[in-house]
Specification:
The structure is a single chain. The protein is an all-alpha fold. 61% of the residues lie in helices and 0% in strands. It contains 15 helices and no strands.
């Protein structure tokens, strides 16, 4: 029901600012293309010739959202042969780079629960899931997310002015921009649901569920999740037990 409500409100309803997806508004598709060209702010930072000028606060929100979506890859151990889910999680994480909550919400509803008595070893995971167990994942993505926030506040000062001016122009943009409005909804959904993965991940690792790190992962948006993925206990290895 939550997923259906999200899809209707964001893509088809008249309840939000801007035109729904069914209107096929050219400005919307151009905006999506321009944001994609400036993915993770690489193109504008390097002053690449094809990098378009986009409102920096919209760019900041967009890239913060995608770095947050990528953080969910730290939970790829949630889907493995001994714990199958209705929807495979790796394609969900990949899809979240394009349609964010439209992919996340169905997985949350259909995923299976972790059984506390089962020991999960690193070797139980596929190669991609093992790679996302790296402690480098969250610091890199938190760097991108933090940079996106600073970009939104300070970048393109010649074109968009200081804080008050750019905030006012961003609000005016959102009044005609369904894409930007949906980004803000996605940020709220991520903040509300990022903790849904944490309890089962704690079980897999035999961690203390009452620890401050676990609480931060559940209740501190983005940065709490990044801290948890950085400092959580690693999964045991069968090689270490030999």
């Amino acid at each position: 029901a939550t997923w259906a409500a999200y899809m209707y409100i964001v893509f088809f309803s008249e309840w939000l600012y801007g035109l729904p997806a069914t209107a096929l508004e050219q400005r919307t598709w151009e905006e999506v293309l321009n944001l994609s060209l400036n993915f993770f702010l690489v193109s504008p930072i390097l002053h690449l010739p094809f990098s378009p000028v986009v409102h920096p606060m919209l760019e900041g929100v967009f890239n913060l959202l995608l770095s947050w979506a990528a953080l969910f890859a730290g939970f790829l151990s949630d889907d493995r042969p001994k714990k199958p889910n209705v929807l495979p999680y790796l394609p969900i994480v990949a899809g979240m780079q394009f349609l964010t909550s439209a992919f996340l919400l169905p997985y949350l509803v259909t995923r299976s629960n972790e059984y506390e008595e089962e020991v999960v070893y690193k070797e139980d995971l596929g190669p991609v899931a093992q790679a996302t167990e790296s402690r480098l994942l969250a610091p890199i993505l938190s760097f991108v997310g933090t940079g996106s926030i600073f970009w939104g506040i300070f970048a393109r000062a010649d074109d968009f002015g200081g804080w008050n001016e750019r905030l006012q122009s961003f609000v005016e943009l959102l009044k005609i921009d369904r894409v930007g409005t949906s980004f803000l909804i996605d940020l709220a959904i991520f903040a509300a649901f990022q903790g849904w993965f944490v309890d089962d991940d704690v079980k897999r690792r035999g961690m203390d569920p009452a620890s401050p790190l676990v609480a931060a992962a559940k209740f501190v948006p983005f940065f709490g999740l990044a801290a948890y993925l950085t400092f959580r206990d690693p999964l045991p290895s069968r090689d270490a037990e030999l």
